Amino acid sequence: MSKKVLAIYYTQSGQLEEIIDSFISPLIEENISVEKVRIHLANDFPFPWTSDSFFSVMPDCVLGVSAELAPFQLKEKNYDLIIFGYQAWFLSPGIPSNSLLQNEAFKNVLKNTPVVTITGARNMWLNAFARLRNLLSEAGAKLVGNIALTDKQPNLVSIFTVFHWMLHGKKDRYLKFFPRPGVSDKDIINAKNFGTILLPYLHNNQWGKLQDELISAKAVEINEDLMFIEPKAGKMFKLWANFISKRQNKKAWLRVFKYYLLIALFVAAPLVFIIDTLFLKPFFPKHLKSNKQYFLKLK
Ligand SMILES: Cc1cc2nc3c(=O)[nH]c(=O)nc-3n(C[C@H](O)[C@H](O)[C@H](O)COP(=O)(O)O)c2cc1C
């Protein structure tokens, strides 16, 4: 019997769509029909963003506040596999992805269904994935694989390039000097290999070893340095989000947060990195390993 696959995702620039197209291409070559659904919000966010609009979504992202989705139709009531494409926004599931996982009709479709999550992030997707994993589990979905493509440039470089991209809308080289932002074309093309890995699991409906194979193929890699920084940053974001969401003059406080973030990225993060490298990594290898496992596991 032919398999029914749904690929559902949100994307602003189209990058995640390109990644998904590459990932599902081996399925299409085998004549498996993949229903692609790109979701939108009823009041979609602007792209490119302005600086103010970009930071304005921080509290709702971090606090998991959902927004109204534009109506969308699915052809089937259930699927053999759902490919769920999401973004990390402010170390949290992006508002559109979070809103989709709060949608009762979609939650019914997710129930008891194998799901592969896929993202095209800057480089900090761990917290977002951990939260998404919980939401999927609450919806009764069966997470069978996770793919995370990232911008492989150094952290402090991709901060500049991603902002250039988000605020100007073009995935091109900032000042003709910096590298191109986002997931590289090579990595996007390479996502096809992960689709090839997926095929036998989909045919057999046996998913046990899929994630191990995806990890071996580097479909998901943990950057240890960022793994130290992200959970700490996530806690700070939560404090800020709670604080700002209760303020009357949110706009002014969001500007303060913007400057806090710049200091955190350019001063605090490198310091945390040095401390972790000198004092934690060499002495607590078991802790490092279990942390990594936490972000690689599916349950
Ligand atoms: C508001 C906002 C916040 C973001 N925060 C993060 C983040 O915390 N971590 C990260 O790796 N990428 C972050 N990104 C980058 C996105 O994950 C994604 O790579 C980028 O928006 C391109 O996705 P697209 O397919 O929707 O165009 C952020 C993007 C936006 C718009």
Architecture blueprint of SSEs:
Elements: E1 4-9, H1 15-29, E2 33-38, H2 51-56, H3 58-63, E3 81-86, E4 88-89, E5 92-93, H4 95-101, H5 104-110, E6 114-121, H6 126-138, E7 142-150, H7 155-168, H8 185-204, H9 210-216, H10 224-245, H11 250-280, H12 285-296
Parallel strand pairs: 1-2, 1-3, 3-6, 6-7
Antiparallel strand pairs: 4-5
Give a verbal description of the structure.
The chain is an alpha/beta fold. It contains twelve helices and seven strands. It has helices at 15-29, 51-56, 58-63, 95-101, 104-110, 126-138, 155-168, 185-204, 210-216, 224-245, 250-280, 285-296; strands at residues 4-9, 33-38, 81-86, 88-89, 92-93, 114-121, 142-150. The protein has a five-stranded parallel sheet, with helices on both faces. It has a two-stranded antiparallel ribbon with strand order 4-5. Helix 6 links the parallel strand 6 (114-121) and strand 7. The protein is globular and about 55 Å long. 36% of the residues are buried. The model has no long low-confidence stretch (mean pLDDT 96). Flavin mononucleotide (FMN) is lined by residues 11-13, 15-16, 54, 57, 87-91, 120-125, 162, 166.
Which kinds of small molecule does this entry bind, naming each only once?
A: flavin mononucleotide
Helix fraction bin: 40-55%
Coarse shape: globular
Query: In percent, how much strand structure appears in the residues?
Result: 5-15%
Helix-strand makeup class: alpha/beta
Oligomer: single chain
Unreliable segments (pLDDT under 50, ≥5 consecutive)?
A: none
Give, in spatial order, the strands making up the sheet with the most strands: 2-1-3-6-7
Rg value: 19 Å
Major sheet attributes: 5 strands, parallel
Overall pLDDT, averaged? Answer: 96
Number of helices: 12
Overall strand count: 7
